[in-house]
Each structure stands twice: as structure tokens, then as C-alpha cells.
Specification:
Blueprint lengths: L1 H31 L3 H13 L5 H13 L3 H14 L4 H11 L13 H10 L4 H24 L3 H34 L1 E5 L3 E5 L8 E6 L3 E8 L2 E5 L5 E5 L3 E3 L1
Antiparallel strand pairs: 1-4, 1-7, 2-3, 4-5, 5-6
């Protein structure tokens, strides 16, 4: 009975995967024909089935950009970057979409070391950093065993240096994997979908308006209070705005 259930589950999964592949290709055909709404419909139906990928989010971002819906476009480009943070094409298209937004927000300056750490961390996703660390950890074990069982001094020296280098690279990859994981888990970000939204000094309608944000702006969510969220911008400004105006990444 268990085997039958497993086989049935595999068959259903294979059928769903096949259906999603077909929908993805249909979406691409619709996109080529400039039928962007139909392409969006095909690709979003894949998301509804629980499947997601950088390519799927990227294509959705492109389709929304074509119909001048900037907020969804930026949202899906950002989702694509979460899965493929080093992809230059996604970054380039995201920059084009961000240029269409009203708000111009200059990030706070960072020191050279912090900037380098951030840029390097974003080269790969958490999974890819972890896989790379695993590969070099395995390389360390193999090289250390070769060092241990080698007879000649030259080979011992080469294998020892190789094992030490593999261990060092593995530890560096673990650091960046942890850094990427912490960033994703701790930093809650969202895209503003409302055409405009008032940011207030307190989570109350009668409180003072600090500033106004517009569609497509990316914010960091610091805390929540019922229907309000406290947000922070890249330039350091913060305040409270309606939760319903945002779509969390």
C-alpha cells in the first residue's frame, strides 16, 4: 500500500512538473507575440501551483514592465534576485524599472570593507554558498588524506598546502552563506504597490505626515502594529505606513 501511495505521489508530481513546463513555454510564446497579459496569466498559474524559480520571476518582471506596471515589475525582479543574487541581467532590468519610480532615495554611504562584504555576499544565494563550502570541505578531506599517506616530502608539502587552502575557502564560503542567510531571515523588505502612501510619525491616522512614498519604492519593515508597519528607507528615514499598501518580498 505504501509503495502504491509513493508511486501515485511521484506520478502526480511528474504530471504537475510537466504541466508547469508547458505553461512556462506557453507564457514565452505569448510574450513573443506581445500578449503580455496572457504571458502573466500563464506564469502566475505556475506560482499558484507552488513552483518558483529565478527564471519565472524574471520573466514575470519583464512582462509587467512591458505593460507599465512598475510595482509588480520591481517586485518580481527582486524575487528573482533573492534566488540568483549575482545575475547581471536581473540587476540590469531591475535598475531600468527602478528608474521609472518617482522617489529618488540615496543609500547611506558605507565603508569600503562593508561594501565589499555586501557585494561579495550577493554574488550567490545561500544555497550556492553552502554547496560551494561543502565541495571544498570534501576537497580538504581528500587532500589531507593524500598528505597523510604520501611518502615524499614534496608531495606532502603540496597536499598539505592544498588541504589548507581548501579548508580556508570552505570557511570563507560558510561565512558568506551565514551572512546571506542572516540577511534574508532578519531583513524583511517590501515593495510599495499603492500609487502613493503617507508615512506618519506614529501608527495613527491623526499623527503627523513625515513624508510620502510612491509606487515601486522598496522599504525595510522594522516592526508591525495591527494594520500599521514601521518602515525604513535606504537613506535612513523611517516612519509608519499602512500594511495593505505593501507587498512583502
Amino acid at each position: 500500500m505504501k509503495k502504491l501511495i509513493c508511486l501515485l505521489f511521484i506520478a502526480i508530481s511528474f504530471f504537475a512538473f510537466s504541466q508547469n513546463e508547458q505553461k512556462f513555454e506557453q507564457g514565452k510564446e505569448h510574450y513573443k507575440e506581445a500578449n503580455y497579459e496572457a504571458a502573466i496569466s500563464s506564469w502566475e498559474s505556475i506560482l499558484e501551483s507552488g513552483e518558483h524559480s529565478a527564471a519565472l520571476y524574471f520573466n514575470l518582471g519583464n512582462a509587467y514592465y512591458r505593460i507599465d506596471q512598475i510595482a509588480p515589475s520591481i517586485y518580481y525582479y527582486e524575487k528573482a534576485l533573492q534566488l540568483a543574487p549575482g545575475d547581471p541581467e536581473i540587476k540590469n532590468n531591475l535598475a531600468f524599472a527602478q528608474n521609472q519610480t518617482i522617489d529618488i532615495i540615496e543609500p547611506l554611504p558605507k565603508n569600503l570593507f562593508s561594501s565589499w562584504i555586501e557585494r561579495t555576499t550577493q554574488l550567490f544565494s545561500f544555497d550556492n554558498w553552502a554547496k560551494t563550502a561543502l565541495v571544498f570541505s570534501f576537497g580538504f578531506v581528500i587532500l589531507f588524506l593524500l598528505y597523510y599517506f604520501s611518502v615524499t616530502t614534496m608531495r606532502k608539502r603540496l597536499f598539505f598546502m592544498g588541504s589548507f587552502l581548501s579548508l580556508f575557502i570552505s570557511l570563507v564560503c560558510i561565512f558568506f552563506a551565514f551572512n546571506q542567510y542572516t540577511k534574508v531571515q532578519n531583513n524583511k523588505t517590501a515593495i510599495l504597490f499603492a500609487s502613493s502612501s503617507q508615512v506618519r510619525s506614529e501608527p495613527l491616522e491623526r499623527s503627523d505626515i513625515s513624508f510620502v512614498l510612491h509606487e515601486g519604492t522598496k522599504v525595510e519593515i522594522l516592526s508591525e502594529d495591527d494594520e500599521w508597519v514601521r518602515i525604513k528607507l535606504a537613506d535612513g528615514k523611517d516612519g509608519w505606513m499602512r500594511k495593505g499598501d505593501l507587498k512583502e518580498l
